[in-house]
Each structure stands twice: as C-alpha cells, then as structure tokens.
Amino acid sequence: MIEKKEVRTDVQLVELARGNPESFGLLMERYQGPLFHYIRRLTQLQPDDIQDLLQEIFIKIYQNLNAYDSHLKFSSWAYRIAHNHIIDYFRKVSARPQTNALEDYEWNKIIQSSINLEKKLVNKDCVVRIIACIQELPMKYQEVFILRFVEEKEYEEIMDILQKPKGSIATLIARGRKMLVSKLKAKNINCLPS
Amino acid sequence: MNNLIQDTLNKIKKEHIAPEPRWKFLLRKSGIWLLVSLAVFFGATAISIVYFLLSQLDWDLYRFMHKNSIMYFFSIVPYFWIIFLGIIVIGAFFGVRKTETGYRLSWLKIIFVISLIVIIIGFIISAIGLDRHLNNAMIAEVPFYAQNIATMEKQWMQPEQGFLAGTISTVSNDEIILKDLDTLTWNVHLDEKTLVRPTVSLEQGQMIKIIGNEDGEQKFSATEIRPWVGQRAKGLKQGGGRMNGR
After folding, report:
1. pLDDT tens per residue across span B191-244
2. B199, B154, B152, B200: which is closest to B176 by C-alpha?
3. Does residue B1 sit at the A interface (CB-CB below 8 Å)?
4. DSSP-H helix ranges across chain A
5. Using a CB-CB distance cutoff of 8 angstroms, which residues of chain B are in contact with residue A165?
C-alpha cells in the first residue's frame, strides 16, 4: 500500500512553526540547501562558517515568524533575511565579500545570460578572463546577477529580497551587463563566439 | 547538514528562543505609519502657511521697488516653511520606504502621492483657517520667525521705501490723517494725480494701503491708494491688527 504523504505549503508550515519549534525543522529542511548555496555564492566562506551563518539566519527567521506576511513568498522573505544577515556579518567583521565562490556551471550561467551568449563557451582561458571581469564588478551587480541568472529568481522575487523597486532591479541588471561589456572591450577580450 | 537542523532546534529549545510576539511587529508597523501621517500633516500645514503668506502679499510691488519680478519673488519666498516642507516630504518618503511594502514603489510615485496628499490636506487646513492661526502663533512666540518672514504688514510698513498702511482717522479734500499699523499718526497728502482704486472708500475707520513718498517726519504724499482687501486680510484685521514688528 502506498502511503500518501501530505505536502504542506510554506505558509502552512510557518503557521505550525509559530506554535511548535519541531515544525520549524520542516521549513529548515526545505530551505537549508537553497540558503546554504545562496550564502556560498555571495561569500567566500568555508562550509563550516556558512553553516554557522545559516544557523544564525534560521534562528532569525524563527524569531521573526510573526512578522511574516503571507502575501509575500516565504522563500523571498527567507532570502531577504539571509541577504540582510550577510550584509550585517560583513559589516561586523569590517570586510566586504570581494569575489564569489561559484561553481563552474554557475559562472557559465552568469556569463551566458549577462552577455547574451547562445552557445556555451568552451575556451577555458576565455572563461577565466570573463570571470575576472565579473569579479571586478561592484558587489551589488554581482548579487543581482546571482539572483537572476544562477538562482533564476523572477524580478518580483529579487525586488522582495533586496527590497528595491522592480525598476531598480531592472536597472541594476542592465547597468551590470553594460559595465561587464565595457570591461571586456577595455581588456580586449575577443574570444567570444560571434 | 541534518546536524544543522537538529543543532538549531536544540539551540532554540535550550536557549528558550521563541518567535517575537505579533504585537511587537504591529506596534512597529503602526509606529512607522503614525510618523508618516504626522509628517504629512505637518507638511500640509507648512504648504497651507506658504500659500497664506504668499496670497496676502501684493505681487506687483516690484515695479515700485525698482526690482525685477524674479528678484522680488526671491525676496518674499517663505524659505523657512519651504525648507521645513522639503525636510518633511523627505522624512515621509523614507518613512514610506520603511513600511513593509514601501520598497516596491518607485521614489517618483511615493513623492507624487505624498505631495498630492499634502496639497489636499493643506487645502483643507487653509479652508478652515488654521494656517492663519498657526502663522500668528509662530509670529507671537518665535522672534526669529517673526523677523525672517515676509508678511503683508511688513511689506506695507516701509514708509522710507514708499509703502504705508493703516486706518483712516479723518479725511479732508487733499489730506488723510492715518493711524499706521504701529499706531503712529501720519498726514497723507493727496493730489489730482493720486490714483484711488475704485474699491477704496475713503472713510473714517477704513484700512488702506498707500504707495507714495515719505516727505518728512510722519508726512507722506500718496500716488496710489489701495484697499486693505481680501478675506485673509480681513481675518488679520479681526485677529488683532499688526502681527509683527518692523
């Protein structure tokens, strides 16, 4: 006999977690992966440090459960808390994340989407040089690239995570792209397929 | 990773961490909206006083002051209230941005909506006459304000510049005895060239404004006589005459 497992929505889990911390475990289970990778992508921290940050973020989420408004996607709200916590963390340690620890496939996603490439880049040297250019972009552009092209968030979600108007998100992406193209030109990077 | 979940749950239980009560968030939310509402109300008050101050002034006097219209405009603008209004609108803007979904609105939309509400409430404040009372109170209580704001009384109590205002005590063929806004008595000379505006009634007890020249100690020759007109001016008169010192 196949057991029918009830799948609860995030909002239902939030409601349960408000009264019972054990139910919060289900929410953590659902979001530990995405948030772990989000932190990794934004910072250069070691996995242990990421876990520590993630625990702090989960506790913050738990403490603020009553502030959650179900009109907002829970994932956007959780990402927002993570984003703000990361900013606070770097402020506390008086540092800024300078470069991102991304996997190759994640870099490829950013490169392909930010400079509108139809084919995957095979020239490794070219990829390395483009990555160097992306890493030179201000962090605000890198973060919006990560959210849009790696996390594949919709504009509305990015708007709710970064708490900026939709127009500002579109502007950040457009400016980031423009800045990247200018950097590629300035550095004479002509290895892109035509 | 599973350890993380269990560790976090253990920490929550061990340290008795609990979700913050709902009322705290509601209080914070209401506090922000209350501040925004107060800012909008103060902004509306400021704009109604700006309108009050500008509407009571005579806009054609620059012609008699040997100034151009732009210079004249800048000399009568109530900077105090305009700066206050600017600060209030910026404060309200950041207040709205601090609300739960305020970030979704563009700055242009927020500024437009705040300005619109400020103007509408300002219009209501103006209609009930609160602007005049507040302006009077400020003039009475804040010397700095009284010294630095352009009012109708200040504008018309500059005999050395050719502007005089007051109440007619007696009238003869070519002379008016006038008690000015500082209760000094003036002999005002009229001749056939003196332009008396049709709405002026040269009778005892009437308030008038005079353009002309100071001829000597408390002597003035009039080239033009205007009524101390307007509902607002009437209100001022009923409110106790001159509101500020020179």
Report:
1. 888 898 888 888 899 999 999 999 888 999 999 999 987 444 444 443 333 333
2. B200
3. yes
4. 10-19, 21-42, 47-63, 74-92, 104-114, 124-136, 139-145, 155-162, 166-186
5. 103-107
Residue B234 is predicted with a pLDDT of 43
Q: Residue B163 contacts by C-beta under 8 Å, 6 or more apart in sequence?
A: B61, B64, B155, B156, B157, B209, B210, B211
The distance of A23 to chain B (nearest Cα, Å) reads: 10
ipTM of this predicted complex?
0.84
B112 interfaces chain A, CB cutoff of 8 Å: no
> Which CATH number applies to B152-238?
2.40.50.320
* Tally of domains in chain A: 2
Sign of torsion over alpha carbons B78, B80, B83, B86: negative
Looking at the complex, does the CB of residue B205 fall below 8 Å from at least one CB of chain A? no
Q: Do A75 and A117 fall within a single domain? A: no
Domain residue ranges in chain B: 22-148, 152-238
CATH number, domain with residue A171: 1.10.10.10
Domain that holds residue A160: 104-186
